[in-house]
Amino acid sequence: MLTRTLMLVISLAASLPSPAQAEPQRDSSTRLVLLGTAGGPSAKRARAQPASAVIVGDDIYIVDAGDGVVRQLTLAGFSVADVRAVFITHHHSDHVADYGTLLLRSWMTGRTDPIETFGPAPIERMTRDYLDFMRWDLKLRVGAEGRQPLDDMIDAHDIDADGAIYVDENVKVTAFSVNHGAAAPAFGFRFDTADKSIVFSGDTTPEESVIAAAKGADILVHEVINVAAVDAMVERVSPGNNDLRRHIVGNHTSTDEVGKVATAAGVHMLVLTHFGGTGDPEFDRPEVWEAAVRTNWAGNLIVGEDLMIIE
């Protein structure tokens, strides 16, 4: 269990050795890797689209697969060939843009064992559609390179109810429903391993379901928006667009609210991600986010950045 002394290690890609220098350190403990921490579908200079990884030993479990997830995982020092399962919170494009690419690159990088994927309907159909989209290349590589068919490796599952959805020798994953407006159904996930409990809120308003799932957890990875930053962003990209503002503010969790959720859940650490309103240097600074969240959260806090490794 994590303690108030913050028994953790945080590192960024700049401090990692290149693949030519050394292999990334491997152990049996549970690590959380923030691959992409931006909120929203637009391109951001400093942050990639939403994706995280729970890593137990050599096995990688991906939560959401935004644009660039494979590149981010590689930059963090891990191999996409070690991805064992993928969990999608909902189907907004910033969370699934590279879902198919993740599966394809894992196969092309050498994985031959099955990959299970989970997400709201229609994840099963989306998976089949992607494989059909890539059929020309898949067929060529099976014939010319002697690979096993990718179709035979992927086992996709529509999540249709709350509860345990995946169990193996490393981890138990439980899904719980959250409120993300029109993007329904949407889910959060709780990962329980031998040494950690990690909860992902997914995109959501402040929800009792998140609090219940995160009770006593070691880490709560929660989305967050800065309302003032959202207002500035709307004024910059679409002045007077109240529908855009209402959609963002009404379907996410503000800096004031996220601390209340973490406090009610009694988590040991709050990790902020999926920052809404980023892109403006005035707002996207760690001290700005921390000061806003501290009004309702006195515990351990990490303002997430891409390629952070937390253990």
Structural class of the helices, strands and pairings?
alpha/beta
Q: How many DSSP E strands?
A: 14
What's the end-to-end separation, in Å?
Answer: 11 Å
Placed side by side, the strands forming the largest sheet appear as 6-5-4-3-2-1-14
Q: Which series of helices and strands comes N to C? A: EEEHEHHEHHEEEEEHEHHHEHEE
Which stretches are poorly predicted, pLDDT < 50 over at least 5 residues? 1-9, 13-22
Number of DSSP helical runs:
10
Short summary of the structure?
The protein has 311 residues and is α/β, with parallel strands linked by helices. It has helices at residues 69-75, 93-96, 99-108, 123-133, 135-145, 208-213, 227-237, 242-250, 255-265, 286-293, and strands at 30-36, 51-56, 59-63, 83-87, 115-120, 154-159, 163-167, 172-178, 186-192, 197-200, 219-225, 269-276, 300-303, 308-310.
Task: Write the topology of this structure.
Elements: E1 30-36, E2 51-56, E3 59-63, H1 69-75, E4 83-87, H2 93-96, H3 99-108, E5 115-120, H4 123-133, H5 135-145, E6 154-159, E7 163-167, E8 172-178, E9 186-192, E10 197-200, H6 208-213, E11 219-225, H7 227-237, H8 242-250, H9 255-265, E12 269-276, H10 286-293, E13 300-303, E14 308-310
Parallel strand pairs: 3-4, 4-5, 5-6, 10-11, 11-12, 12-13
Antiparallel strand pairs: 1-2, 1-14, 2-3, 7-8, 8-9, 9-10
Helix pairs in contact: 7-8
